[in-house]
Amino acid sequence: MSTNAVNTMTTTEIQSPLHRWVQKLMHSTDLGMMPVIAALIAIWIVFEFLNPHFLTPRNLSNLSAQIVVTGTLALAETFVILLGMIDLSIGWSSVVAASVFSVGTVFLNLPVWPCVFLGIGASVLLGFLQGLLVSRIGVPSFVVSLGGAMIAEGLVLAMLTQHGGSVPLSDNLSTAVGTLNVPPAWSWGISLVLFAAFAIVMLMRHADRRKRGAGEAHTIVIAKLAFMLAVVVIGVGLLCAYQGIPVLLMIFLAALFFCAFLTKSMRYGRHLYAVGGNAEAARRSGINVRFIQLSAFTIAGALVGLGGLLDAARLGVASATIGDGDVLLNAVAAAVIGGTSLFGGRGSVYGAFFGALVIASITNGMNLVGAPSSVRFGVEGFILLIAITLDTVLRQRRMRSGRA
Q1: How do residues 264-310 score in pLDDT, each as one tens digit?
Q2: Which of the pair, 235 or 26, is modelled with greater confidence?
């Protein structure tokens, strides 16, 4: 054995596991959600230093309710961005759902649950029609969704202008969803059941990958589950120290886990990532690219409708002014900050949760310290630019290594 080989082996052996992990991280072409989690920790530390009330159970409860709308719309945007496309209509489409629900319950005196499905159905229809134009005709998603946003805005104005531009909600369902918290005992029970279901699915997926000669080591998977369990216990404990988990957050988490199961454990999810990574290669491998594109816009429409109803329940009103706000920008920013690549084929629905948490944490923290909105937008824009730049750099690195 040569001297150089001995020296190389000796250097490798004396490296600590942490050193090897850092080296692997530095040469990685996919950092996943690590950057957004690091940014979130840094943001929380800064705001807790500036205002000790930031990490109190009461404020964290408010924060958990504030992320719901942005998070749900970011989930919808994630499905479209994974295709390498964009949906600019989600802001106004969400208001369409809220408008249909409010007009149906308040002025037409229809039962609440049919109005829920009518509201979500309206957004699903808009998403489906946009998906048809994109998948069947090939119109760029930017143009299609821009036109869809204008149509949705017209529908909202037609429904709400004659009622003063806003309709207050008074039904029991909206009041309960928008204001109530799940009692602590139920919060613990539901959270642990959801985590157990998540752990079972994750372990089954890990076992399947190991059978095929892929996947991570058992210790890494167990460590991830242990970390997630610690986060769940700490988070639920803090929320239960106030009044329990907000109903809004529980509904959002149910939608999040459903989307995660769909994209991570189903064949549909693998096809979605394949189409976003390379549509032509996916088509040649037998994947129905048109169906994947159409279904992604349709699923996004359903999530947009849900987000619109949750927003109306949280505010207690369906208002036309919501569509003119920063709803769309926050949703896109949350998806991108959460690690979803604008080039398509890479990302995770869990990133939408963490991205929404970053956006809401900045807004909440700025309000606590009395900072003007100009500072908040500047900070959010700065973080968004960092996320996009990092995504571009990693994509260029993947292209150089032949893994793009």
Answers
A1: 888 999 999 999 988 899 999 999 999 999 999 999 999 999 999 99
A2: 235
Q: Please check whether residue 112 is in contact with residue 339, taking contact to mean a CB–CB distance below 8 angstroms.
A: no
- Nearest-10 crossing angle of helices 141-160, 112-132: 150
Rounded Cα gap, residues 290 and 98, in angstroms:
29
Q: Are 388 and 371 in contact (CB under 8 A)?
A: no
Domain ranges of the chain: 33-183+244-401
Q: How far apart are CA 274 and CA 287, in angstroms?
A: 9
Structure tokens at 295: 């279904």
Convert the pLDDT of each residue in 19-73 to its tens digit. Answer: 554 455 444 545 566 778 888 888 889 888 988 888 888 998 899 888 999 999 9
251 Cβ contact partners less than 8 Å away, ≥ 6 residues apart: 68, 177, 306, 310
* Architecture of the domain spanning 33-183+244-401: Orthogonal Bundle (1.10)
Cα–Cα distance between 189 and 338 in angstroms, integer? 28
Residue appearing with tokens 């096809």? 271
- What's the pLDDT at 211? 78
CA-CA distance, 310 to 304, in Å (whole number)?
10
